[in-house]
Amino acid sequence: ETGVTQTPRHLVMGMTNKKSLKCEQHLGHNAMYWYKQSAKKPLELMFVYNFKEQTENNSVPSRFSPECPNSSHLFLHLHTLQPEDSALYLCASSQDSNEKLFFGSGTQLSVL
Amino acid sequence: DAKTTQPTSMDCAEGRAANLPCNHSTISGNEYVYWYRQIHSQGPQYIIHGLKNNETNEMASLIITEDRKSSTLILPHATLRDTAVYYCIVNRDGNYQLIWGAGTKLIIKP
Q: Most buried of the four, A50, A79, B38, B76, by CB within 10 Å?
């Protein structure tokens, strides 16, 4: 148990569906992250929130929409995804920007 | 930011010390060396980090060369549960953009 909980654990969706990934951290951290891990590729940073404010957006397509209502919760809203978006989506948190990251178990997403 | 070079894969016998090397020859003076590992189908797990001095915790030891151009992660008594991909990353304060490479796939054999 890392203190970072992601739901759902697995998700299958069609290209026209709208779904959301949820992340919750119980560590009192200030920063939260979304990462994407495609098969046989390194982890890619998607978004960073620090004190609920988005500080990084790595040219992620608009079909991925993050939301951070408070410093403990992070969402990733998905709509009109493509099959190439199938991947493991990981949430992480840290106390500050250079502190160690705590990751959730991820959501394995399949887009059909 | 500096990049790292790691072997693609390594084997180690159960109960022996696993020594995982990492080359970071372009590391800057203000960059730390971090190690994470990722067990299959899970999120990465922080192991240890250091700046100049060697570090030890309950999971592992980190040995950083004096010129800081390379480091070694040591798992003193490897178990089958240590089978994972191990990532070596360098990063400075204030930078969220960690560069994750392919890591080293460590297989512990009985």
A: B38
